[in-house]
Amino acid sequence: MKTTTQDLALLGGAPAFKAPVHVGRPNIGGRARLLERLNAILDSRWLTNGGPCVQEFEARIAERLNVKHCIAVCNATVGLEIAVRALDLSGEVVVPSFTFVATAHALQWLGIKPVFGDVKRETHALDPQAVERLITPRTTGIVGVHLWGNPCDIEALSDLARRHGLRLMFDAAHAFGCSHAGRMIGGFGEAEVFSFHATKFVNCFEGGAITTNSDETARRARLMQNFGFSGYDQVECVGTNGKMSEISAAMGLTSLESMEQIIRHNRRLIEAYRRELAGIAGLTVLEYPLAERRNYQYVIVEIDAGRFGLSRDQLVEVLHAENLLARRYFYPGCHRMEPYRTLEPDAGRRLPVTEWLCDRVMALPTGTAVSGDDVAVIGSIIRAASRGADEVRRRRA
């Protein structure tokens, strides 16, 4: 525990953690069950091309999310690209800048211009009013992002898309196992794309999935996921190699079996963080609505430098010195990354909330590699940094 400012590693104390504590360190699940599946895969010699593990994984995802179709893919970025092509998006598509850069890159990679819309301060999700101001004759679609597992304003975006004749899809990389208005995320818009990257609470080592209730969107996505093949030697359209491997699906199935246990662990950690960080001026922990299902895989805080005494970046420096690798999410915003900052250097002028959040938001470690005792230590570090903010600033200067 850190009880005084002098205990902080940044000021000469011993680091609180001997080994780095990461945001999003992988959850492993049932190791013995995973090894059973891997041995069965090796015995069968069916390693890819839609084997039994992929088929079972797709079926379980579709059943859990109550959607008609699930197409497993090698990763969520390829999933976004396939979904974008399956929906025939072109020209300009409105997306948030406050997201992981893959959301924008998937469009840019396909020759589509991502037009960055601002987000709501309360939810960090795309602001429908900001979206409507950006619609032009070249706009063909909207890609909303369910950030931190909290959904976009789905109804307002759906109404907007309907009134303007636009396609609507969602980047649901953070939102597996979450619900909106009592429905599981996965069946909203015309398609949703999930990530099962190693850092996600349910993972496939590396993987993703496209879900939809549209038979035509599913048909097109499944063709594109496998080079456009509709049969042994029949190609119907341009496609790519977006298939999930059997080994990735085996990890996904194993993760699904531990999913509820991981969610319970994550929720206990968030409750512990709330207790530890309560009452610290200038620090706000993101709320999750209790009426809906959430996966609790992100602990997100906002830092108000004027009240806390240190900026978010200064606090990150304090935490990193303790081997606590907190992350600045989603710094600096897609619009300040290449190629977007060169293509549209003044985009930040219409993104005041995004710019505000990019300088305040921080993610703290969670997942099964983190314990309640770890959270108590993390809380003591942050309290010590807040109490000794003047000394931290003076010594670092």
Give short descriptive properties of this protein.
single chain, alpha/beta, Aspartate Aminotransferase, domain 1, 7-stranded mixed beta sheet, 3-stranded antiparallel beta sheet, 14 helices, 40% helix
Question: What does this protein structure show overall?
Answer:
The chain has 397 residues and is of the alpha/beta class. The protein folds into two domains: 154 residues, Aspartate Aminotransferase, domain 1 (Alpha-Beta Complex), CATH 3.90.1150; 224 residues, Type I PLP-dependent aspartate aminotransferase-like (Major domain) (Aspartate Aminotransferase, domain 2). 40% of the residues lie in helices and 14% in strands. The chain contains 14 helices and 14 strands. The strands form four sheets. It has a seven-stranded mixed beta sheet, with helices on both faces. A three-stranded antiparallel beta sheet has the order 11-12-14. The protein has a two-stranded parallel ribbon with strand order 1-13. Strand 3, helix 4 and strand 4 form a beta-alpha-beta unit.
